[in-house]
Write a structure and sequence with these properties.
By secondary structure, this protein is mainly α. Helices cover 71% and strands 6% of the residues. The protein is globular, with a radius of gyration of 17 Å.
Length: 159
């Protein structure tokens, strides 16, 4: 790999990290605060809505946040009745959770705010650019999921 290719990939990774950091402000102001949830609670709701049943350690690896933060978010969501415990038939020691009916309803109530934020942040892209960004994002997300599961074999993610 040439130095130029190395620098290009390095700089692209820095851009991804910047995107990951910068999205927190708009998510907090546009989705979390109006929805009465913390950012981690919102991310847990979104992860469970998208991935299905996940254990706390899965969420820690997916979200890249300390276990204590995930544990607190799960406790709050459980207290609100938005998540419930479920069973992993393949591993009785694993303790996954899923959205309860109330949690799914709460998540669906957040969707208009998420859609508004998506329009605000992505609305300047053409339809073609949005499709291209989606395709590229899917490839990067797939590589990330592969990396996570290869480095943490106990994590369960949708293929």
């Amino acid at each position: 790999m040439s130095t130029s290719e190395h620098n290009d990939r390095y700089n692209l990774l820095i851009r991804l990290l910047k995107l990951g950091s910068f999205i927190n402000g708009p998510m907090k102001d546009g989705v979390c605060d109006p929805g009465g949830v913390t950012q981690i609670e919102a991310k847990v709701l979104m992860a469970l809505a998208g991935e299905g049943d996940l254990a706390g350690h899965d969420l820690v690896e997916i979200m890249g946040v300390p276990a204590m933060n995930v544990s607190r978010a799960l406790a709050t969501l459980r207290d609100r009745g938005w998540i419930e415990d479920c069973v992993d038939p393949e591993n009785r020691r694993r303790r996954p959770v899923r959205l309860s009916q109330a949690g799914r309803a709460r998540y669906e109530e957040m969707i208009p705010a998420i859609e508004t934020l998506a329009k605000d942040l992505l609305g300047s892209l053409t339809d073609r650019q949005q499709r291209e960004l989606a395709a590229l994002s899917d490839k990067v997300i797939s590589a990330m999921a592969t990396w996570i599961t290869s480095h943490h074999s106990s994590v369960k993610l949708k293929s």
